[in-house]
């Protein structure tokens, strides 16, 4: 534990200006990022008496070994830089306003000739209009299925659309009237786009015009004695009313807003968000975060707005294309919060830049918006209470598991970082390995690694384990470190190097031979501060290197449960990689022996059908439609793929010799 006074900046060296600061630990990793209107005032607050600091703040400053800062011109620049650094370094002490779910939205691909309606998760793209997010995909699909009766727009993927176009017959949705079947020319592009535009208008909340129009058409059809058409319009009106009943009207003025509320204590806070579009609640989400500093509601709002909307707009992979239309932006016209943060003007300016038009940030004082805020605050308090009841058990279980592992394995300290290696293959072919990382008893997926086994692929699981351990730790030891750089940090990017930090405990999937192989490699490399164990699946035995008898952990112990979770996660990650690699090999090998089928035709086939699975399901006539592929070659391709399936009655072998089908 470091003493903050050992790295406190000299008096007068911290500028009295806006900026962003980073705390680093002894290994050079960024553990906390923050912004301040005055760097001098904010940083000096961290070096007060440790006993008087917030518990998480005290833990952070005693874990850190240094602090650095960057001065900026405006608070908006500080806001942007703070968000960028949190995304880049993923500091362990920063609050992350994100949950483990990907919420679905309704996407309308307006950038296509025949736009498609789809339930979608992922990065936002230019030219696509989005509605949502929604809490439940099943509810969104039910609503979409209901509305397709009134707005029969295309919902199929492009390969299905092209296939039905080739065969000249619509799919099932076209036959039952839930698609206007543009694939076979029942409607042209202009008519189909009109259907999609009407759908977007309805989903955007402008429902009254649509309802009045359908009612007028129904009355006219009835007056003209077109009773079948009138009955269909009556049923359409009923479908629209049922769809509208699924979304409660909360703001009668058609407001587009996000409403945010918090419930908190000294250590944690719960946040709840209502997404209101067109006056209707389109989605709700909520989660609980740990408070790093002693802060009130205004401070939580400040942190939430920058991180939540930054993640929503840019996405985990910068998915929002630059210059996208404002219809696609997740930033609403109005954000209702319980308290305004100190720098609310800068935040509103930043949000307006993200949206491309003015965004209002305000506290509702009266009327429907105030009533909605109070409802959301009650939801936040209830969610916080439920979290407290569950969290007490989770924290106790994780702490007990780590303490038990330290005691039962005779470790010097609790294994706060655990890594696990697993091997996957089919009878010695396509040998791959996974390495997963758990910190504080929880998976850290950003540091997972996967390996394609090279030298030891034909020598068995023990040799494969040795190769993975050698590559993992040799990489760590061989990284050149400049004299001016911090160990473990790339001086060019400022980010941690891969494999830069060793685990406290290395788990290998297997028994004594696998554990011995891993330990021998570590001894060979001179790594003597990493404990090694093997976990055998058959009896869940724990093997220590060079021991002739296993350690038997109690079946009901939290320590065994944690090891099983780590091992199962490594197995899942290895199997996923193995299937990907195996699928690529099958794609190539299944078509390699077909006479007259070269690389160009193989590529054309896969590109046309999209996958080997779809190619296998196609008929000879469909395959022969690909340019350059005749009926004789098409028949040979189909025969080769059929034979490949018959040859796949094999089991996937795992690292300890057991078989998984």
UniProtKB/TrEMBL annotation:
It comes from the Bacteria. Residues 208-243 form the UVR domain. The keyword DNA repair applies. GO terms for biological process: nucleotide-excision repair; SOS response. InterPro entries: GIY-YIG_endonuc, GIY-YIG_endonuc_sf, GIY-YIG_UvrC_Cho, Hlx-hairpin-Hlx_DNA-bd_motif, RuvA_2-like, UVR_dom, UVR_dom_sf, UvrABC_protein_C. Signal peptide: none annotated. The keyword DNA repair applies. Residues 259-522 form the UvrC family homology region profile domain. One of its GO terms (molecular function) is excinuclease ABC activity. Keywords: Cytoplasm, DNA damage, DNA excision, DNA repair, Excision nuclease, SOS response. GO terms for cellular component: cytoplasm; excinuclease repair complex. Interacts with UvrB in an incision complex. Belongs to the UvrC family. This is UvrABC system protein C. It comes from Actinocrispum wychmicini.
